[in-house]
Design goal:
This protein is α+β, with helices and mostly antiparallel strands. Helix content is about 40%, strand content about 20%. The protein is elongated, with a radius of gyration of 21 Å.
C-alpha cells in the first residue's frame, strides 16, 4: 500500500458515498486510475467491505466506557471467560502494563453501567479496577 492507497482509504472513511468522479477530483487522479486502485485494494484484502451506520448503531449503548482490571495471581483466563458472559461487555482485551485486562462496556443508563461495574468488581480474583466513561466518539471503524 502506498501513499495514494492510504489517501483513497482516508477519503472513503470521510465519505464512502462519494462518486468516483468526485473522489478522483479530491485525490487529483483520473477515474480510471482510481477504479484500478480500488479494485486492487479489494483484491488484496485491504478493503474488505463497505457498510452503513444507522442511528440505531450509534445509539445502541448511549453509556459506554472502558474498565481496566487488575487480576490476582493466575486467574486471568477464568475471569476473562466470566467477563465474556456479561451481556453489557462488548469486548475483552488482554494488555500489558499496570492492568491485566481492559473491558469495553455499553449500557442504556448510568445506573445500569454502575450495576455492571459492581458485578464485575465482585468477581473473585479482581483486586483493582479503574473505569473511564467514553464521552464522544470522534472516529470509529
Amino acid at each position: 500500500m502506498d501513499d495514494m492507497d492510504s489517501r483513497i482509504i482516508a477519503a472513503l472513511r470521510r465519505d464512502a458515498r462519494m462518486s468516483l468522479s468526485d473522489l478522483a477530483d479530491v485525490l487529483q487522479t483520473s477515474r480510471t486510475t482510481l477504479r484500478t486502485r480500488l479494485a486492487r485494494l479489494q483484491e488484496h484484502g485491504e478493503i474488505v467491505g463497505f457498510t452503513v451506520l444507522t442511528r440505531a448503531d450509534v445509539m445502541r449503548d448511549p453509556v459506554r466506557g472502558l474498565m481496566m482490571i487488575g487480576i490476582e495471581g493466575r486467574g486471568t483466563e477464568r475471569i476473562t471467560r466470566q467477563l465474556g458472559s456479561f451481556a453489557e461487555v462488548t469486548a475483552v482485551h488482554s494488555t500489558n502494563g499496570r492492568w491485566d485486562v481492559i473491558v469495553e462496556i455499553g449500557t442504556d443508563t448510568l445506573e445500569a453501567f454502575d450495576a455492571v461495574l459492581t458485578r464485575i468488581r465482585r468477581l473473585e480474583g479482581i483486586v483493582a479496577s479503574e473505569t473511564n466513561l467514553l464521552l464522544k466518539t470522534r472516529k470509529s471503524r
